[in-house]
Request: fold
Amino acid sequence: MQIIPAIDLRAGRVVRLKQGDYAQETRYEFDACALAADYADAGATWLHLVDLDGAKSGAFENLRVIEKIAAAERLAVQAGGGVRSEDDVQRLLDAGVARVVVGSVAVREPEKVEKWISRYGEDRLCIALDTRNENGVWRLPSAGWTQSEGATLDELAPRYANAGAKHLLCTDISRDGMLSGPNLDLYKHVQRIAPQLSLIASGGVRDLADVQALRTQDVGGVVLGRSLLEGKLTLAEAFSC
Reply:
């Protein structure tokens, strides 16, 4: 299981949102590049970067920071937020990103993203299906979780598995930034409907016990955000699993 620290960017600053709500932002007094270096020093090999401005607007608004972190070549970077076209995918790859995270467009235009999987290969793309349970159905909001879409998790996860995708990032929006624990039942469900995918769990991880629970469930990776920023968990503790 990969331990992947996360940095969410808004106007160049390190922030976290509660349940994806842009009105519920917490700012942290960290320089993003220095924080990435600290994570590398602590033993991380991957970093998850999110351009929150881009996720909402569809434009890369924090690309300079992403480029700088990637250029340091201390961490393999998976980054997303604002990817809408193949040009966007290529732009991030040209910026040094190892794996492009594709979210809103993966929900809205799966045919397009399936072609990207064929063109760039399974290891260069990560499908992000961030989900919210509505009356027992796992819905897939887009555009920084601000817009409702018709597609469901149960439709798209198996579809991408069959299309040759390898990496699936799945976030329970209701738990994101809340330190309320990961939704283990959700991840069991994803593993049932799309067992071919390497599942990266995200949202709600509080402490070492949560990391251990996810490892026991045999997920491919776990993204750690607020718990690291606020000292609830250290990377050394996470790696001890």
Remarks:
- Residues 110-120 form the longest helix (11 residues).
- Residues 112 and 217 are 32 Å apart (CA to CA).
- The chain has eleven helices and twelve strands.
- The radius of gyration is 16 Å.
